[in-house]
Design a protein that fits this description.
alpha+beta; 26% strand; single chain; 269 residues; 5-stranded mixed sheet
Length: 269
């Protein structure tokens, strides 16, 4: 493989790792685990983000018909009393539905399962799920493609600067263009459809997804400014790539949009 091929491979690996890491460590990634009842292992998956106008389903596959239980829930953050929904069995599946909430509304919920005299709770600390509006595929698909393509080219620019390649300024300029489209056109559009807000980062809020995108853009604008007129700017480009990698290792959706039920008041649905 040529040196360029190795650098592209490195850029792809770093890009995929960064995007996967931020998604899998974020607060909206499904929570997985298991419990043991009657000597049998029951795999569990709790969804922590729900889109659309319907209630959020909670489903557990438990073939043992002696297993029963419920879902304890309340609005988050709030001082509401806990409510409990029974898990209704249909064949091998136990199911319930958390009541739909307005966009950016959150619920805390926890499974309480039993078999005879055995009792288990999962998870130990209630899971938090956030409700959102429907997002058009015509918005989310371009957002994902632009973010992946932009990050890939920016990582390739950083690798090229490190390897003293001549084409690294071209990768940087193309990457910034895609990054602008993904993070500052389709990203806000997607957020507006999901939560009703176009931008919740500085100066309007502390959404880390918006703010880390802004930090990365500023780093690259500095690098592009240093590249003006065909100048050599390996250091600023490499620094911008490292800043971008660092911010993309921050979990996705931290400090995102949410309704503070302690201030909003009103009963749960």
């Amino acid at each position: 493989m040529t040196r360029s091929g190795w650098l592209w491979t490195l850029a792809v690996v770093v890009t995929v790792f960064a995007l996967a890491w931020q998604r899998m460590t974020g607060p909206t990634y499904p929570l997985r685990g298991h419990v043991v009842l009657g000597g049998q292992r029951i795999a569990l998956k709790l969804v922590r983000s729900h889109g659309g106008a319907a209630d959020q389903p909670v489903r557990i596959v438990a073939p043992d018909t002696a297993v029963r239980g419920g879902v304890q829930w309340r609005r988050f953050p709030s001082a509401d009393a806990w409510d409990t929904l029974p898990l209704v069995r249909t064949g091998d599946t136990l199911a319930a539905a958390l009541p739909h909430q307005p966009r950016a509304g959150k619920l805390a919920y926890q499974l309480r399962l039993a078999r005879g005299g055995e009792r288990v709770v999962f998870p130990a600390e209630p899971a938090i799920t956030r409700f959102k509006g429907d997002i058009s595929p015509y918005v989310i698909i371009p957002h994902l493609l632009c973010m992946f393509g932009g990050l890939l080219l920016l990582m390739r620019a950083g690798a090229g600067a490190l390897a003293r390649e001549k084409r690294y300024p071209s990768w940087a300029r193309r990457g910034v263009l895609l990054f602008l489209l993904g993070g500052f056109v389709f990203g806000p559009w997607m957020q507006h459809q999901a939560f009703g807000d176009w931008w919740t980062g500085i100066p309007f809020g502390w959404d880390l997804t918006d703010n880390k995108t802004l930090i990365a853009l500023v780093a690259w604008l500095v690098a592009l400014w240093r590249l003006r007129g065909g100048r050599e700017a390996r250091g600023p480009v490499l620094a911008a790539a490292l800043v971008t990698l660092a911010v993309f290792l921050v979990p996705h959706s931290l400090f995102g949009s949410q309704i503070d039920w302690t201030k909003a008041g009103g009963p749960a649905s």
